[in-house]
């Protein structure tokens, strides 16, 4: 069976639905929708199951996300202290007064004038330089305890510094994880788009898909064809190539048929998707078997028609 997320064929799958179509693993459905914005349906045309490896990755990220959420709530609790809020507002107002930051240029550092840094005799920064913050008295002399909640102000500030350091690391890791998840979602969207191109019905479609396959998307087409073939090339080849196209082509172009090997991008991906010891031999046999079944079916139909007459 195929995993709905990574599109790999594996026996280690997690069943999300019962045989009747009811949701058996609601936590899986909710978690996938929360983080991947993906809602798997019972009648999904690719698969309604996910592999255990993918679920482990999602669980790890969800645990990570919960830890971040807890840290952020702790930080909000600390910053909710009125004394800390007051100090924060004073610092911001002082900085705004000195540098006159324009709202349209919040990310631009203030310009420095060398005359503000040196005095006329080059003796260093003047005491009255506008680059020095004019720190109000209430900030210079911070009380040891919060006047509102009675807790130690230094304890709050120390914990705030620790949380800020931790959050910086957490957010950097979260950013990396977010990139991976978006890449996974993008990969799933591209795979779904490629899946709609199969089965290939005629020469024009074969030429079109051969022109589309390149080094950037080759792996995607290989994964899609693997999910279609499911290690059963003889049974599922007509899901890659329609019966009509199979009758018009063979591998080498013999007997007046089209040559499948001429479509190098498609055929190379097709070979890679056939996970057998000798992929070319397996494809050749599958094509011959499909043609044999077609002739047998046609022969049987003709006999039935004659019998009916």
UniProtKB/TrEMBL annotation:
ZAD domain segment(s): 1-78
Please give the Gene3D superfamilies that the UniProt record associates with this protein: 3.40.1800.20
Q: Which UniProt keywords apply?
A: Metal-binding, Zinc, Zinc-finger
Q: Where is the signal peptide?
A: none
Q: Highest lineage ranks of the organism?
A: Eukaryota, Metazoa, Ecdysozoa, Arthropoda, Hexapoda
Which GO molecular function annotations are given, in alphabetical order? Answer: zinc ion binding
Record organism: Ceratitis capitata
- Which InterPro entries does the protein's record reference? DUF4806, Znf_AD
* Cellular component terms per the entry's GO annotation: nucleus
> Where is Zn(2+) annotated to bind?
3, 6, 51, 54
Query: What is the name attached to this protein's record?
Result: ZAD domain-containing protein
| Origin: domain of life | Eukaryota
């Amino acid at each position: 069976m195929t995993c709905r997320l990574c599109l790999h064929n594996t026996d280690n799958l997690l069943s999300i639905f019962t045989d009747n179509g009811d949701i058996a693993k609601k936590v899986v459905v909710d978690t996938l929708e929360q983080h991947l914005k993906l809602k798997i349906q019972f009648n999904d045309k690719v698969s309604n199951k996910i592999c255990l490896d993918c679920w482990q990755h999602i669980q790890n990220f969800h645990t990570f996300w919960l830890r971040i959420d807890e840290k952020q709530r702790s930080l909000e609790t600390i910053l909710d202290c009125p004394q800390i809020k007051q100090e924060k507002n004073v610092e911001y107002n002082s900085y705004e007064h000195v540098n006159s930051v324009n709202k349209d240029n919040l990310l631009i550092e203030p310009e420095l004038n060398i005359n503000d840094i040196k005095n006329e005799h080059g003796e260093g920064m003047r005491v009255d330089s506008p680059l020095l913050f004019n720190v109000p008295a209430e900030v210079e002399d911070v009380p040891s305890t919060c006047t509102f909640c009675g807790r130690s102000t230094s304890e709050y500030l120390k914990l705030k510094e620790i949380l800020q350091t931790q959050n910086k690391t957490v957010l950097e890791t979260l950013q990396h994880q977010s990139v991976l998840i978006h890449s996974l979602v993008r990969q799933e969207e591209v795979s779904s788009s490629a899946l709609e191109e199969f089965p290939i019905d005629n020469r024009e479609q074969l030429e079109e898909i051969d022109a589309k396959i390149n080094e950037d998307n080759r792996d995607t087409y290989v994964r899609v064809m693997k999910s279609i073939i499911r290690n059963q090339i003889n049974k599922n080849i007509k899901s890659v190539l329609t019966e009509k196209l199979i009758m018009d082509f063979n591998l080498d172009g013999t007997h007046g048929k089209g040559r499948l090997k001429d479509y190098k991008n498609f055929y190379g991906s097709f070979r890679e998707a056939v996970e057998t010891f000798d992929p070319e031999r397996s494809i050749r046999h599958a094509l011959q078997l499909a043609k044999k079944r077609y002739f047998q079916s046609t022969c049987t139909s003709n006999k039935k028609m004659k019998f009916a007459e």
